[in-house]
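Notebook p. 47: complex prediction with adenosine-5'-diphosphate.
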Amino acid sequence: MVLLDAGSTAELAARARAGLGDVLGSDAAVVGRAPGRVNLIGEHTDYNGGLVLPVALPHATYAAAAARSDGTVRLASAQEPDPFTGHVDRLGPGRATGWAAYAGGVLWALREAGLDVPGLDLYVDGTVPLGAGLSSSAAIECAVAMAVVGLLGLDVDDALRARLVDACIRAETEVAQAPTGGMDQSIALHARAGTALLIDFTAGTHETVDLALDDRTILVTDTRVSHRLTDGGYGSRRAECERAAAELGVTTLREATLEAVEALTDDVVRRRARHIVTEIARVRPTVAALGAADWSALGDLFAASHASMRDDFEISTPELDLAVATAVEAGADGARMTGGGFGGSIVAVVPTAAVRTVVGAIDAAFARAGHAAPAHLLAEPSAGAALVG
Ligand code: ADP
Ligand code: MG
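Predicted complex, structure tokens below:
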């Protein structure tokens, strides 16, 4: 059994500081921390004006930073081999590439937002698995943003957090060129421990949802089939949703009715839109099921969501389908794939007493099917980005 440990904040902040010293020869002035996330329901709905319900993970990314007076930007990561060197005036689209687009892109976007970002040395380390659908991308962006805010000595209130969300979205969509919708950055910056975040992308609002999990555990299983959001699958789904909205004469699919969607002539466009409309309709009932500890209702909602992603949106994989089916057979209340799809992770709500059984059953099923061993983690609902040193 591979169980990914979140690590302690103090130890990981110290590790990031030590990395900055060892690799770039700088003394850290600040350490920013931002969590990965798992989305409970509402998949691909953020860019359709919909509802999402993510939870921040205890697993996070840490960015240790020191300001420089010469405008030079040096970036290094414990998770990626190639360091980056550039200049703070030249970090926009096309300048910082590869993993450095995520970190450098934030520095550019914060400058565009009017912050007086200095040159800096920055070192990243953490425990969010990369490319697992658990938003390591927003975790690195938001950790870097927090580090910059720390260097500038700004007061981190809700208004500043909202500006940081926008800057991190610009870094991801314009510099890293991954056309994602904003859920990941919102949860990384606005999460509160013990809660999920219900985000409404039409109203532009978010509210915390208390999670009375009692004897239940949120289990995440990373299938270790790595997805790539920049590969085209995510972008083509987004384009199909935009086509459906245009044909229906609505700004986003949030405004579309299921009846109108069923009348769309193109089979693929109709099924894509059906997923979005039905998935948005499952989010508030999921909030209600969680609030009432109605695990049977939650299981039905997760099952319908997974089937919709597998059959209508076509973003699942054999590994994700196997993990979901096995989790439910082994005693999970509900399970579904989570994140952008084409690989990545599943999320399951499991009676705490059955977690070991469920994990063992998934491991055994993967071994029998000849799949690589999956990795599991316990998604204790955690706090959002902060300065930690
Ligand atoms: P996900 O967000 O689901 O983990 P993405 O494809 O959106 O997957 O983002 C993963 C990419 O983000 C990595 O390939 C890498 O470029 C960058 N990244 C994330 N975390 C780190 C890190 N700790 N160090 C360096 N790059 C990172
Ligand atoms: Mg991502």
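Notes: The first helix runs from residue 9 to 24. The chain has a mean pLDDT of 96.
Next step: compare against the earlier run before touching the bench.
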